[in-house]
Amino acid sequence: MTTLRTMLDERVHEAAPELCEIIEGTRLRCYACGHRCPIPEGQPGVCKVRYNRGGKLYVPWGYVGGVQCDPIEKKPFFHAYPGALAYSFGMLGCDLHCAYCQNWVTSQALRDPQALSPPMEADPAELVQDAVRLGARVLVSTYNEPLITAEWAKAIFQEAQNAGLITGFVSNGNGTPQVLEFLRPWIDLYKVDLKSFDDRHYRQLGGRLQPILETIRSLHGMGLWLEIVTLLIPGFNDSDSELQGLSGFLASVSPDIPWHVTAFHGDYKMTDPRNTQPKDLLRAAEIGRRAGLRYIYAGNLPGRVGRLEDTLCAHCGASLIQRMGYQIGSYRITPEGKCPACATPVPGRWASQFSPQITSYPFLPHRSSGLVTIAHRR
Ligand code: SF4
After folding, report:
1. What's the CA-to-centroid distance between 32 and ligand 1, angstroms?
2. Residue 24: CB partners within 8 Å, gap ≥ 6?
């Protein structure tokens, strides 16, 4: 039986020319993420899924590491098509190696032998048909870092747009101008996981802060709908000064960017910090509010954070969307995307009509989708 490495090496495509440059001879540079790896012949980049064979850059193609139907609130997007079903897919691999990754079975599959997520054969048109059949309004690349598999996402998103679907990335934001320009025509929504505001912390995770900040500014400048998540980890990224810096930066890009502060629980290799408590999220939210952010949400502790799960009008305070976890209790935004009480526009992407949620819980579509697991050994 074939190994995971061999199986993935057989499912590749040549990189988009915009995301690859010849440095010298057969040596290449990849621009799919902020690492901008120089890659010698026969070697992979830091992500281990893009590699140089014979002076050409090959990239993942033709499989998914996971597919799931999620409420869009789980991504989380709170200001984009509330209640929509988000058909979510991922591949394998990541350019970072966060010790607390909650998707480590897919993101670390090439680094960690304990990470087992059997890939499945996939075709862009079939994935889109499956999404439409299940009633999805949105198609999202997630579970691993989608920037490192940008060509595959683009192929699927082209099909998705032809079918009238909205498309999105759930990403660590370690981008480059080249990859953002490459994706720009095909992507509507972008969630960036801003993990810290301290470059030393980012280096522990295998990245740098600056490319992520530049990506956030660029995405907003491009007009994509952008939301930010920060997983609040006690003792790692939750000091007042770090949160002031982080939320102040976001407010300087736009006070209308929704900021989700979410609760940590021990996962993967990071089990020492205590779990985040409601009071930690409330403190972070207050810091964000003082920095000028207008839409702040507290996640992962449903029913324990007061009104920080709800969307309120930033002008008059009227309740616009009530939530409990991923479930929507009420929806009052007008078809024009305004507050019904004072007519203040609410930033976001709103449907002209609210459709009741298909689900407020994730579910797997595999059995009915026709996706076939690819047999392999580690
Ligand atoms: S995607 Fe990032 S980590 Fe992977 S080869 Fe390209 S620059 Fe390197």
Report:
1. 6
2. none
